[in-house]
Every structure is written in structure tokens, then in C-alpha cells.
Write a structure and sequence with these properties.
Blueprint lengths: L35 H18 L7 H5 L1 H7 L8 H5 L5 H13 L2 H27 L6 H4 L1
Helix pairs in contact: 1-6, 3-5, 5-6
Length: 144
């Protein structure tokens, strides 16, 4: 699609188009796209997290909050376990993810996808905040 130049009433010369006002990939370039800061922030957060803590499946918090979802997916798991049966678990969404992953037989892959989705959510959130509060420097979202 071509750019359309519109002259204001009373002027003979055409108005200059705004930067990035055109359609297509030429408008603003690759690094001015709306998806680059969130993806860069997500990648940066993921790289920093893995560099500092590593990625461990079924360790730390996952070992505690995954029990209810595993018990729901496999009725023979944790039979007679007081903690799984009696203690309220407020992580209902993670329980559903764990249930689905356990039923599919792909719990490690589902947890990895969950982790990647959380990094993307962080990237989107930090990019949105940077765009909202410092619109002239949205690349600062990557530094968060």
C-alpha cells in the first residue's frame, strides 16, 4: 500500500508524512516494532535467570506446589498423604497445568513451556511499563 499525502486546506504543498506512518515493513524498521522490546526483555530475563539459578525441573517450589496436580492426574500417586489430601493449595492454575502435563505424559515439557510463558509475560509487562512511563525510551524495558 502506498503512502497518501494530504494537504491541509489552504496550503498548496503536500503535508509531510509522519515517521512510521506508512504501512508495511519499511515503516519504522525492525527495531522500532512493537514486539521487539517485549521479546528482548523476555530473552534477557530468561538468560539472566538461567545464568544465576539455572533451570531445574521438579525442584524447589515445583516440588511443593505440583503435588496436588499430580495427585489429581494419577489417583495412585500420594495415596494416604495427609499434605496432598488436606492442605489447601491456592495454586489452582498451576494445578491445572500440572494435571494436563501429567495426563499427557509430558510434564517436563509443559513446565518448560510454562516457564517460557512466564518470561514472555515479564517481557510484555516491562515493555508496557516502559512504553507507558518513558515512551521516548522503550528500550529501557530490556534493562529491567
Amino acid at each position: 500500500m502506498s503512502d497518501v499525502l494530504v494537504a491541509p486546506a489552504g496550503r498548496s504543498e503536500a503535508a509531510r508524512p509522519r515517521r512510521g506512518a506508512g504501512d508495511g515493513p519499511r515503516a519504522g524498521g525492525l527495531w522500532r516494532g512493537r514486539s521487539v522490546p517485549p521479546l528482548a526483555a523476555a530473552f534477557g530475563a530468561a538468560a539472566a535467570t538461567v545464568a544465576r539459578f539455572g533451570y531445574g525441573f521438579g525442584m524447589e517450589d515445583q516440588a511443593v506446589i505440583a503435588l496436588k496436580g499430580v495427585a489429581r492426574a494419577d489417583r495412585t500417586a500420594f495415596v494416604g498423604d495427609w499434605f496432598t489430601a488436606q492442605v489447601p493449595q491456592p495454586h489452582w492454575l498451576f494445578d491445572l497445568v500440572t494435571f494436563a502435563g501429567e495426563r499427557l505424559g509430558a510434564l517436563p515439557l509443559v513446565y518448560l513451556l510454562w516457564w517460557a510463558a512466564s518470561m514472555l509475560a515479564f517481557g510484555l509487562g516491562s515493555a508496557w511499563l516502559a512504553r507507558r512511563f518513558i515512551p521516548e525510551r522503550p528500550w529501557l524495558a530490556v534493562l529491567v
